[in-house]
Amino acid sequence: MAQRRGQPQPTNIRKTEPSEDFTFLALQQSTGSDVNAFQLAVAQQLMASKEKKRKDMEEFFGAAKSKLANELSQAADELKSTVEATELVYSKFILDYVVLEEAIRALWMKIKKEEQTLLFHKTTEKAQIAGMAQVKEACHETRTIVRTLLPTSD
Question: Is the whole-model pTM more than 0.85?
Answer without folding.
Answer: no
